[in-house]
Structure formats: structure tokens, C-alpha cells
Amino acid sequence: MYPVKEKLNEVLQSLPKSVRLVAISKFHPADFITAAYEEGQRVFGESHEQELAQKVKELPQDIEWHFIGHLQTNKVKYIAPYISMIEAVDSLKLLREIEKQAAKSDRVVKVLLELHIAEEATKYGLTLDACRQLLADGEWRQMSHVQICGLMMMASNVDDEEQIAREFDTAASFFNEVKAQYFADDDAFCERSWGMSDDYHIAVAHGSTMVRIGTTIFGPRIY
Ligand SMILES: *Cc1c(COP(=O)(O)O)cnc(C)c1O
Prior knowledge:
CATH class: Alpha Beta
Strand content: 15-25%
Radius of gyration: 17 Å
Number of domains: 1
CATH superfamily: Alanine racemase
Largest sheet: 8 strands, parallel
Helix content: 25-40%
Bound molecules: pyridoxal-5'-phosphate
CATH architecture: Alpha-Beta Barrel
Number of strands: 8
Shape: globular
């Protein structure tokens, strides 16, 4: 089996104490997650609702599951009863649906707003202006079953480390802007989720508080 425990501990040792690890377990079997769990890892990220539902059934109850992929509105009801955090909220419509479904389960679901900063046209997420608009609109203030905990983004998938660093810096200064304007008194708004296997060292040096690492811990995904 892939040396999950060893790889996990290498990653943990390379992270500052202030940065939390979300171990991205999508497409990997439950026993890989168990191996990481046995080393103390409790936060895992998945991106497909059915795969996640299956793993939730099989694995320990105290795992905190993050939904990290693009989430269709009609899938929210399936994960709302147990999901800890939905990382990639990219529309007011999705936020409303999370509020509705979380209310039905009598829960508060933590969410991050996903920014689109990378150059690739294919990536999801809110442009900075769309995110400003969503926050200015204010409807989120009435939502008592979602808690906006910060921002999430993916950098461009390029080799140019300076470009990647610039994109993280853009996200970090945008975080400061909205923190000051909307969340100055809200300690829960504190997360900056950026950094994946290829760029987490850069992310950590550029404001990340939460890295989402899959391949480095669990090996290549077999789709
Ligand atoms: C798959 C995925 C990751 C993990 O990517 P790795 O390169 O395997 O570390 C992180 N974030 C999101 C949104 C993903 O979909």
C-alpha cells in the first residue's frame, strides 16, 4: 500500500502550526483515510457527493468532512445533514440552498466563498467584484444556518512560481479588504484556504491558513 502515514507526517512536519491540513481523499479508498486517521488526521476533503456519502457510512463519526469541489444546488440536500464545511461557494443561489437545507437539519454549516483569480477560464469561483457584490447585497446576514468562515481559491496550474505567489497575494489582500469591511468583529471569519500538492509551500508563505493536499499524501488518483 502507498505509504500514507509517512507522507502525511512529512506534510504535517513541513507546515507551520498556524496552518491546518485538509487531507484530500477523493478517489482514494477508505483504508487510505483510515491510515491517516490513525495518525491523528481528522479533517478530510471530498468532491463527489456519492463517494462522500459512502465513506461517511464506513468511517469514524468524528471525521470533519469538507466538500471541496463544485457543488450543484440539487446536491446540497444530501450532504447538509453531516458536512462540516463547504469550501467552494460560488453563488448566492448556492448559499441560499445551503441555508435552507442546513435549517432542515437544524445545523450550522461552515462555508468559504470561492474566488476566481487564476487565469484559466475553466475554473469556478466568484470574481472579486462578484464577491464584493454578494457581500454588499447583505442577504447572507439573515442566514442563521450558514457561517461564512473565509475564502478559498486555486492558483493557476502553471510552473511560474511568481505568478502563483501573485495570485495568492491577490487573494490575501482581498481577504483583508472583506475582513475589515464585513467581518471585523467576527472571529469565525479567519480562513484562507489555498495551497495544493504542487503549490502549498508557496501558499503557506502567502497567507494560507488551510491547505488542501491530496496527491502528496495519498499518491496519484486513479480515476
Ligand atoms: C483535488 C483537489 C485538491 C488536491 O489536489 P492535489 O494536487 O492532489 O493536492 C485541492 N483542492 C481542490 C479544490 C481539489 O479539487
